[in-house]
Amino acid sequence: MKILLLNQAFYPDVASTAQHASDLAAKLTDRGHEVTVVCSRRAYDNPRERYRKRESWCGIQIRRISSFGFGKKARWRRAADFGSYLANCLIHLIMLPRYDLVVAMTSPPLISWLGALFARIKGGRFLFWVMDLNPDEALAAGWLQQDSWMTKCLQAMLLYGLHQAETIVALDRFMAKRIEEKGIAREKIAILPPWSHDHMVRYDAWGREQFRKKHRLHKKFVVMYSGNHSPCHPLTTLMHAARRLADQPEIVFCFVGGGVEFEAVRGYAECQELKNIVTIPYQPLDK
Length: 287
Fold this sequence. Notes:
Blueprint: E1 2-6, H1 16-30, E2 34-40, E3 54-57, E4 60-65, H2 75-95, E5 101-104, H3 111-122, E6 125-129, H4 136-140, H5 149-164, E7 167-170, H6 173-180, E8 189-191, H7 205-214, E9 221-228, H8 235-244, E10 251-258, H9 262-271, E11 277-281
Parallel strand pairs: 1-2, 1-5, 2-4, 5-6, 6-7, 7-8, 9-10, 10-11
Antiparallel strand pairs: 3-4
């Protein structure tokens, strides 16, 4: 089977969707399928980092496309990056042949619309793997107004992808319920939680101690947040807790990962002169 996978982030990027998309593509290739991936040349969390335009990895044909690299410090920058990526992706899809199956994720938001349109015009089945639900997320973050023309347009694009999909993969029962409330038949929705990398990430007493020593966490009670630092995540709860517990040096709040709010956490710690907040970028799987 010839399979096309659409997602902004892919190997060797460390973003969560990149890791899960890479796992899926590698497993499909192992089973004898021909997999092509269209993704971004820029790293998800650091747009200054670029990858090769074309690459063959584990038998997967990777086509990386260009986009603006304004970053995530302002909403207009994110919108410009997403818009340029979608426009360039559309051009590349026009030149691609028909695939038996198109799998679209949700990075950038509503790439699923392009995937659904591609499958509709050129043929083949369409699977929508929902990692984020936009514009719902943007509405919850206060970035969009409920009755604005932009919200209505984005909702229409989301619904098109949901209705065109033969199968929709949701992260959990709550996301599945929200999708169902949009008028989607429950039998179309499959629930697949993100899996852990137990073959690479496991308890290691020696590694644990080395990590603690390196980041001055030895003999500390560590409260850790790890992953994408999104505006939709309650990071302020942890930051305020760190400020209230600043007089207890045995407790340390450790933020690991990246995302638009990662620098905000670092800035908050510096502004409040909090010594009990430690910020660490994404770590390689082997560490």
